[in-house]
Every structure is written in C-alpha cells, then in structure tokens.
C-alpha cells in the first residue's frame, strides 16, 4: 500500500468517514447507506479471540443485508441507548489495480449513553465507554466531484465483552 | 384427556375469564399463588446470598460442568484456563499423550495462580520457567503437562528431606471429553460418572454431535448482572418467543410450531425435539441447507443440561452456552459457536453467518434475551416487592408448556433439600 500525501484525497476520505459516522450516531440509517456503494459495499465486525486463538467474525453483511437490518430494527425489543462513534482517521493508502481505491484506518471509540437498557431511573443519562477498535475502510474517490463512497468497512474490535451486545452496527 | 374432562376444563377457563379484573393491594400481592407449589418460585431463590452459597456447595461442586471445547486445545501442550462454580480457577492441558486433563490452577506453595492467560501453549517458555511446564511466576515452581511437580528451585537446600516434588503435585480434577467434544469437569472426586449424570438426554442429538469432530469458530462472553438461573431459564421456556420478532416470524407463525414436544430427563435435564423453522421468513435471512450429520435442513433441536448449560443446534450451527455463577447477582455467560472440523472455508463462512444472525453479540435474539434477564434481576432485587414467579403453563408437554422450568426446580429442590416455592422451608418439613 502506498501512503497518500495528496491533501485533497485525504480531505475527501476523512470527510466521508466522519460524515458517515455522524449519520450512524444520528441513527440516520439511510443517510449512512448513502455513503456506501450499493453494489459492492461489504460490512464486517471482526476481532481476534485469545480465548480460542482465532480471528472471528461477529457480523458480515452486504448493502442489502444492512438495509434489511436497519429496516427491521423497530420490530425488535432493544436497548435504545444511543451510541456515539468517535473515529479518527490515522492512515491512508492507495490500493486497487489502478491505485484508484483508498484504504483508510481510523481509530474508533464507541460510547453508550444509557436510556432504557438497565435501571432507567438510576442510570439513564450516564455515558460509558462501550468499545474500542478500528475502522478499516476501502473507498473509491472521485476527485472531480470531490466525493467518495465506502466499498467496504471492517470494524476490528479490541473490546470483546460488549455487555448484552448491540442490535445496531458500530 | 377424554371429552368430558376437556369440556370441564373449557368451562372452568371460560368462568375464569368472566371474573372481574382488578389491581391488588400489598396483602393480595404478597399472597401465594393459588397454584401447586411445583408451579411457582419464591424470588428469594434468585436473590438470597445464603441460598447461592448452598447452590455452589450442593450443586456446582458436585455436578459435571462443561468448561471448554477440545478444539480450543487442539495440540499437545495446549492449555485453556477457566473459573467454575463461583470462580474456582482451573487449567485444562492436553498432555504429550494427547489426553486432556484438568487441574486446580493454584500453586501448592503460596497459593498463586499458575497459568494466567486464557489459552496458549506450554511449548513457549515463561520468563522464569522451562518449555512444556506450567510455571508459577512467584517462586518458579514448575509443573509438567500431567500436573506433576517438575521443579522446585533450591529444593534440597530449603526443604532437606521434609518435602519434595513428589509431595506437591497439582490437584487433578475429574474430567472427560464427550458430547460433541466438550471438556467436562466435576469438582468432586466422588460421585456419578458423566455418562450416569447425563443419562439418555443426549441420545436425540448423538448423530449430529458425535459422527465427526466439531470445531469452535465463535467465542464470546459477558458478565451480566443477573442470577444464573434466570439466564438458564430463558433456554428452558419458549413462551418468551413472543419477545423475539425473529422467532415469531420463523417459528410461531409456521404450521406445526405448537406441536413441538418437550421432554424431561433424570437429573433435571430437558430437551425440545426437532422442529422445522422457516429461516427465510425473516427478511435478510435464508433457508438453511447446510446441516450437521443427521440433521434435516431448517431444523432446530435444543437440550438443557442441569444446572447451567444449553446445547442449541439450528441446522448449520451449534451454539453451546455455559453459565458460571459469580454471586447471586452476577453471572458469566460464555457462548460458543461450532461447526464441523471438516468444513470447507465456504461452508465455515456460511455457518458463521447463520450463527451471527441470531446469536452473535450483534445478532437479533441474544440481546433481547439478555435485556430481559437483566431487567428481571432489577425488578426482583431484595426488598423490591417482587414475590413469586409463575411457571404454571400446561400444554400437553408441547413447546409453551413450562415443564422445563418445573423439572429444573424439582432437581434443584432435590439437591438443596429446599422447596423453590418457599426456600425457607426444608423438604422434610
């Protein structure tokens, strides 16, 4: 992977990652999907388990799978405590046959502000650190329009105990 | 049941439905349910610390408990650590003879934990020990993969002929590998074998579990603020399918769902037999063609082993959940997903995806179950006013019959000598 020094590309990629994170934080699912290529987008949540000494995958969905997951959220009994994703883009590089794709690594922290998951009278309003990890994103950048789309996102978690889990992706 | 009896039951149900409905004052709320004592539970069985300690002593220290899967320590000198029955530290090691043994993970010298990592290989030397040994980092006492003491630094100078390596081997725990390759332990040196404890409970899953070796692909754990029994009970009653949109769509709305039979076995084990699930009725999911040996496509079987383990086989993936009670308010929940060791990469990927849709930490059902048992614990904490849980559904031993809960507490009562409906009373009273 060749590191990117072109400031315009860096800015477009960073803006896309930040704006897509804000969409997720706002629970604007269609807004988030708008940043993802609807033909090829692939989303995974993975981690390494020292307990079984293996890489493991906890979610693996394409664009359509993500769409149906979001569409069905209202039908599930859930913890509605909002999640706040804080991503910081750390490293970018060119990839793809023509070097036309960009790989971006962002450090990720996810906070959860309690609402109804546990004892709401005592706990609602508290914020806890929920998970840490990385986004490893692949994007296609269009310099002419100054935009980019996510082709894939691997959420690589360091945190392996995430309370009761989460119905919504990180 | 004959026609006359059915008629009478229907009349009684109709009369009950006509009775005026009202709220209850404290005295009415605190009154015992007008049900047989086998059909309700006093909530103190979930909240009382004394009862919890008794459960550890009379149940967890004496029954067989699964601690890990053999594929987690696949090679000689591989190890896996665990804490069972109120967090008694164990280390499981595969010896050079390929046999898996379990030991108390406590150094006999000064009581330190010997092996600290969750898993690994003894082939790599510790900073103060030799390869192939378990080394206590505190004073360098070393133990081989069979649990024998292999090294005491400056042994003769310090202990002369008063104590030697032969006297200080590790405490070995009874263990066995069975039922899909799980490593089971029993903290008591005495008592029944694993086969006698399990009885014939696994018979209906034997082909799926034991035709060929299984392999773990998923491990997750969480410490949940709930009593361990509450979590286990979610696996023993299916009436809560109303909570799961996934199960309503793929199960309850499908023909034959309510005919699924419930079976209870000796020692408190219980199973729900094969049913067919319409996985593709949940949007984004699909029909399950990949299976285990002997398992029809789209099938689902489940077995609960007393007191804290559930095997759930949904066509392409086996989930085994194990509950380790920490105290009366906290439970370590471990969930393992398994496929066949012979899986192609494509088949394995399919099993993983099928597993995660329902059971993964980002799956649809697990979160709902865990939320429910957490909130049960909040509602029934000591002094909250919660009194009794009802387990009185009788539906001809089919899926929504609560016979699985009743059989659990029958075994619980037998072992503790207490009535679950009134745990302050001993059985002989």
From the structure above, extract its key features.
A: 170 residues, alpha+beta, seven-stranded mixed beta sheet, 7 strands, B: 429 residues, seven-stranded antiparallel beta sheet
Tell me the Rg of chain A in angstroms: 17 Å
Helices of chain B, by number, come to 12
Oligomer: heterodimer
- Taking all Cα atoms into account, the compactness measure Rg of chain B is 24 Å
Count of individual beta strands of chain B: 21
Q: Note the main sheet of chain A.
A: 7 strands, mixed
Mean pLDDT of chain B: 93
The amount of beta strand of chain A, in percent, is 35-45%
Q: Specify which chain pair forms the largest interface.
A: A-B, 36 and 39 residues
Per DSSP, the total helix count of chain A is 4
- Uncertain segments of chain A are none
Spatially, the strands of the biggest sheet of chain B line up as: 2-11-10-5-4-3-6
Class per helix and strand makeup of chain A: alpha+beta
Concise account of the structure shown:
Chain A is an alpha+beta fold. Helices cover 23% and strands 42% of the residues of chain A.
Overall description:
The complex is a heterodimer of chains A (170) and B (429). With 170 residues, chain A is of the alpha+beta class. Helices cover 23% and strands 42% of the residues of chain A. By secondary structure, chain B is an alpha+beta fold. In chain B, 26% of the residues lie in helices and 28% in strands. In chain B, the strands form five sheets. Chain B has a seven-stranded antiparallel β-sheet with strand order 2-11-10-5-4-3-6, with no helix packed on it. In chain B, strand 3 and strand 4 (88-94) form a beta hairpin. Chain B starts with a helix and ends with a strand. The model of chain B has no long low-confidence stretch (mean pLDDT 93). The chains are: A alpha+beta (170), B alpha+beta (429). Chain A binds chain B through residues 45, 49-54, 56-61, 64-65, 68-69, 71-72, 75-79, 117-119, 160-167, 169, and chain B through 72, 80, 117-120, 216-225, 243, 245, 282-284, 349, 352-353, 356, 360-364, 366-368, 370-372, 374-375, 378.
């Amino acid at each position: 992977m060749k590191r990117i020094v072109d400031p315009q590309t860096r800015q477009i990629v960073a803006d896309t990652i930040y704006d897509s994170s804000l969409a997720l934080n706002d629970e604007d699912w269609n807004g988030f999907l708008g940043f993802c290529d609807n033909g090829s987008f692939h989303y995974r949540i993975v981690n390494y388990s020292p307990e079984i000494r293996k890489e493991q995958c906890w979610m693996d969905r394409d664009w359509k799978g993500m769409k149906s997951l979001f569409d069905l959220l209202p039908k599930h009994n859930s913890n509605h405590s909002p999640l706040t994703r804080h991503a910081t883009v750390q490293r970018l590089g060119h990839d793809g046959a023509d070097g036309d794709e960009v790989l971006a690594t962002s450090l990720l922290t996810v906070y959860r502000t309690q609402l109804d998951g546990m004892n709401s009278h005592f706990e609602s309003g508290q914020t806890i650190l929920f998970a840490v990890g990385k986004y490893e994103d692949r994007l296609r950048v269009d310099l002419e329009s100054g935009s980019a789309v996510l082709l894939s996102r691997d959420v690589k978690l360091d945190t392996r105990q995430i309370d009761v889990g989460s119905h919504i992706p990180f | 049941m004959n026609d006359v009896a059915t008629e009478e039951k229907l009349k009684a149900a109709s009369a009950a439905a006509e009775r005026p409905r009202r709220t209850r004052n404290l005295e009415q709320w605190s009154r015992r349910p007008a049900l047989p004592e086998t059909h309700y539970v006093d909530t103190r069985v979930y909240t009382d610390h004394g009862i919890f300690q008794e459960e550890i002593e009379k149940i967890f220290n004496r029954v067989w408990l699964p601690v890990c899967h053999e594929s987690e320590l696949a090679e000689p000198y591989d190890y896996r650590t665990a804490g069972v029955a109120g967090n008694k530290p164990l280390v499981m090691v595969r010896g050079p003879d390929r046999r898996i043994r379990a030991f108390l993970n406590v150094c006999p010298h000064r009581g330190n934990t010997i092996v600290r990592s969750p898993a690994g290989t003894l082939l790599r030397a510790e900073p103060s020990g030799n390869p192939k040994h378990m080394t206590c980092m505190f004073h360098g006492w070393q133990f081989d993969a069979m649990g024998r003491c292999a090294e005491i630094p400056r042994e003769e100078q310090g202990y002369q002929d008063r104590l030697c390596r032969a006297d200080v081997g590790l405490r070995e725990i009874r263990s066995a590998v069975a039922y899909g390759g799980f490593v089971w332990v029993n903290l008591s040196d005495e008592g029944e074998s694993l086969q006698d404890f399990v009885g014939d409970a696994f018979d209906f899953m034997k082909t799926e579990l034991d035709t060929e070796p299984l392999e773990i692909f998923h491990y997750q754990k969480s410490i949940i603020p709930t009593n361990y029994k509450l979590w286990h009970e979610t696996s023993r009653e299916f009436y809560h399918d109303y909570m799961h949109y996934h199960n309503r769509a793929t199960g309850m709305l499908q023909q034959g769902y309510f005919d699924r039979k419930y079976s209870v076995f000796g020692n408190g084990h219980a199973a729900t037999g094969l049913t067919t699930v319409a996985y593709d009725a949940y949007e984004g999911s699909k029909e399950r063609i990949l299976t285990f040996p002997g398992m029809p496509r789209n099938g689902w079987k489940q077995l609960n082993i007393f007191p804290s383990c559930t095997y759930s086989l949904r066509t392409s993936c086996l989930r085994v959940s194990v509950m380790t009670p920490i105290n009366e308010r906290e439970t370590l929940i471990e969930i393992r997903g398994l496929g066949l060791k012979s899986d192609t990469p494509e088949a394995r990927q399919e099993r993983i995806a099928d597993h995660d849709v329902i059971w993964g930490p980002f799956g649809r059902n697990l979160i709902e179950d865990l939320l429910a048992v957490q909130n049960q614990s909040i509602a029934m904490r000591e002094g909250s006013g919660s009194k009794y849980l009802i387990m009185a559904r009788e539906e001809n031993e089919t899926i929504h019959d609560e016979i699985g809960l009743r059989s659990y507490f029958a075994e619980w009562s037998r072992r503790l000598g207490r009535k679950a409906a009134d745990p302050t009373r001993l059985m002989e009273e």
